[in-house]
Amino acid sequence: MNGFNRVRSTLRRTLFSSNDNSSSPNTTRREDFPILNRHLSSYERFDLSTGSQGASSTSLNNINPTINSHIPIIETSSDGVEFLPHNSKRTLRTIPGVFCPIALSMFSISLFMRMGFVVANAGVLQTLLQFGLCFIILFCTLLSVCSLATNGAIEGGGVYHMISRALGPEFGGSIGVLFFFANVIGNGQSVAALVEALVASFGPGSKANVFEDSHWWRFLYGTIINIISLITCLLGSSLFSMATFFTFILVCFVYLMVVVSFFVKSPTQLLIPKVNTYLYEQQALLYNKTDLIYGNYTGFSAATMRENTYANYTVDYTTGDTMDFATVFGVLFSSITGLLAGANMSGELKRPSRSIPTGSITALLFVFFILITETLFMAATTSRFVLTNNYLFLQDINIWEPFVVIGIISATFSACLSGLVGASRILEALAVDEIFGPLFHWIRGGTTRHGNPWAAVIFTFILVQLTLLIGSMNKIAPIVTIFFLLAYFAVNLSCLALDLASAPNFRPTFKYFSWHTALIGAVGSIIMCFIVSAAFASIAIGVLIGFICMLHLRDFPRASWGSISQALIFHQVRKYLLLLDPRKEHVKFWRPQMLLLVSNPRSAINLIDFVNDMKKGGLFILGHVKTGHMDNGSNDTCSQEYPYWVSLIDNMKIKAFVDMTLAPSIRDGVLQLMRLSGLGGLRPNTVILGFYDNAVPEDKLRHRSFFKKRWLKTNAPLNAMATPAFHQQPIIQPGIMEGASTITLNSFNSSATINGNDMYPLFNFG
């Protein structure tokens, strides 16, 4: 009885949305972050709303409740899954928010329109093989997505948000762009599929004969469908989820009628539609132009099953191209790429960390069961001639023909909505994170009061319109397949890197993920990507690498999430440092390991350059001693000045490390640096001191030229609060030096500022 009650309560929570903001105290607990809630006495806090950084001094006794009202608080369920608390944007549960969008996106094209095409060319055996390949890739990718979804609180942006927070903005932004274009092109394919269904059902040769059939007529029909999708999405996600749930019920009912029709329909002749111009032109010598061509529906027959068992690749009458295994796989895979439709709605889900794994896995298993069952029914009842020349034969054998038309229109239109909503949410997340700087600022401002990104929806609508110019659905299919396979490869590779690097921020509560599944998914995705189209795959990979390199050179003032590259570097460096055994040193491989003691880099710039040239690939450490005592409660001056020294190294383009210490005297500090500098087998064997004389030190730093990267830097102004009180530095107005490629510190005056924080620490050497 207790088990039955638990199941009943779970179903009630899943199916019915509640407006109650609070949860049972026995099932949830609240966690807050000390830094976010200002539990520290003094710290510097980055303000996402203004893009500036300032110092704040508060304590537990004087917390301002109005300031803390916007700080997100993470709720954690009893099983350890983190989620954001209820707000006005988060209204979707598992069934309407994840299960239904995924099922409808995967049903949209394949269920009623393309299964006959696949069986006719690949046969039953190769169709099942292709289903197996698709299932392995999708299921392994889904396990990776579930691990990301349960790795902490999730906001809008779907998989992009999960990956960017785990891997950093470079990889996350690149993969986010890939997902965005995959959803855009997939949406265009859904629109083209709906147009094809309407023309085949109501176009030339049909009973209604109300639609014209040409390239530009089809583009017009697609534009009308796209506009209807745009209007629906502009009305908000709640209407979309409601429509999705009822559409799913309708599609399931239509499919049930199709299954019943397989059993009750007697053998008959099925008409080959006039839109199959290829067949009618080929048969012109046998038939008159006014004659109609028919094929056989045999009902369940062993002979029909044997006829459809093996592959027989022929010409696709919608494109005129001869099919092969790779092309058919591309069409099949592109028809079932809606795996991430639920994850794209993460910003509207009440419990994304629970809804995404549960809804996605059940939807995937449900869809594959339905499609494999339909494949066997088709192969056992319909002749290969009909399967090859009439992709919409299901409506001819149905108990009531309009049933299938209604199902096709409902499923494909729902996929159009899902693709438009998902792509716009990804674009909105990219704009909010400023991945491409000010390029998409107008999208950030184009959001309604309830969080609906109307500007991103309109921009996505325009790109979908351009996709419709490609032509028929089967021409778009290989491009969709390439983009989604690369996206799935990136997801699996990301999780593989996080797991192998033992990243401390990657601790998913989803227990069924491992690096083995991520490796299988990544290898399978990239292999099938090149099998479908090596040319398209090479171009797409090149574009992806280009985005990664471009974003790697950018500064991300709002995206301080860390980078997986640093975790991987740390993992490899630690491993090889342990292998570097000092006991195995030999004189033949001796090299200088320099420790240069520097008091003030302004007068030691030339010496630093000289030692950098002399080290010959060895270790180079800049040592600096601060005199004083570490008293309780005093600030650590070494930690405060360390970033300035690192910035000096970056701008001088030298390969060196910095080591600083605090000691009562210079002598004690130098001894500490000589004995403690380095790590493992990397320790200095040569100590260098500047020559002491009575000459007045010259400021070599002021006249040194530094390269200034213009477009890569943020326009955020410097915050004077971050400067130590004992350093009064010049200020330079943003944009004054924008046209210069090199700058010198001597070119600044008291009324100038610098655009970007990289040069700023150089002023902190007195």
From TrEMBL:
Annotated localization: Membrane
Pfam families per UniProt: AA_permease, SLC12
Membrane-related topology note: Multi-pass membrane protein
GO terms, molecular function: potassium:chloride symporter activity
Keywords from the named record: Membrane, Transmembrane, Transmembrane helix, Transport
Transmembrane residue ranges: 98-122, 128-150, 171-195, 215-236, 243-264, 325-343, 364-387, 399-421, 453-470, 476-498, 519-548
Gene Ontology biological process: cell volume homeostasis; chloride ion homeostasis; potassium ion homeostasis
Span of domain SLC12A transporter C-terminal: 606-694
Gene3D superfamilies tied to this protein: Amino acid/polyamine transporter I
The keyword Cytoplasm belongs to this UniProt entry's keyword annotation: no
PANTHER family (UniProt xref): GH08340P, SOLUTE CARRIER FAMILY 12, CATION COTRANSPORTERS
Protein name, entry field: Solute carrier family 12 member 9
Organism this protein belongs to: Adineta steineri
